[in-house]
Amino acid sequence: MKELSLYSLIKEDINEEMFLHTVEGMRLMSHQIESIVLEEGLETDMFVGFQKYSAFVPQILRYRRLAEVASSIYLFGQPNWSLAPLPRTAYIPLSRNHPLTREWFIVVNSSVLSCALVARERIGMYGERYFQGVWTYKPELVLRCDSSLRNVLGINVKPWLNYNNEQQHRYAQKMKQALRGLVPAAGD
């Protein structure tokens, strides 16, 4: 697969919004995006990066439910584990040195929910894992991520959508409220 780093693709546009989070913080943020797709029954394409397929294993039941709702799920990772097929889910194997194996991402681009959680792994002084990145609702950044992933996969790029800003704002507030006090930042 062609080289691509979502983090590098958008980092110049998001410096003031950068975060540093733990693995647990990233999991909680990812679950909020997934929960909106599940709870609202959003028929949308989802692009998710798990670095390695083995990291996906604890999430299989959740993604089996997501596969019943989402139009399609594209799951990227290093194929270090044998995964059973899921409906409407494509496993995208990455070579060990592919830039996306060092990133955690989830990209959803629909008219009512347009967001991207994109972060690059950082290793702390004592070997602890952190992720530096951004959670953005900016349609132009989400579209850039969405289009780039579609291009490397050779699937049709979606045109610019007529975003429902009111619904988008409602979902963003719902996710932020659910995370308040739960997401540990690095060093907390």
Number of strands: 7
What is the general shape? globular
- Count every helix, treating DSSP H or I runs of 4 or more residues as helices: 6
Would you tell me the overall average pLDDT? 91
The sequence of SSEs as H and E is HEHEHHEEEEEHH
Largest sheet: 7 strands, mixed
Radius of gyration: 15 Å
The SS-based structural class is alpha/beta
* Contiguous runs where pLDDT drops below 50 for at least 5 residues: none
Q: Strand content of the residues, in percent?
A: 25-35%
Entry keywords:
single chain; 188 residues; alpha/beta; 7-stranded mixed sheet; 6 helices; 36% helix
Describe the model.
The chain is of the alpha/beta class and 188 residues long. Helix content is 36%, strand content 26%. The chain is built from six helices and seven strands; from the N terminus they run H-E-H-E-H-H-E-E-E-E-E-H-H. Strands 1-7-6-5-2-3-4 form a seven-stranded mixed sheet. Helix 2 packs across helix 6. It is globular.
SSE arrangement:
Layout: H1 6-10, E1 19-22, H2 23-40, E2 45-52, H3 53-56, H4 60-69, E3 72-78, E4 89-93, E5 103-109, E6 114-123, E7 129-136, H5 139-153, H6 165-179
Parallel strand pairs: 2-3, 3-4
Antiparallel strand pairs: 1-7, 2-5, 5-6, 6-7
Give a quick rundown of the structure.
By secondary structure, the protein is an alpha/beta fold. The protein is 36% helix and 26% strand. It is built from six helices and seven strands; from the N terminus they run αβαβααβββββαα.
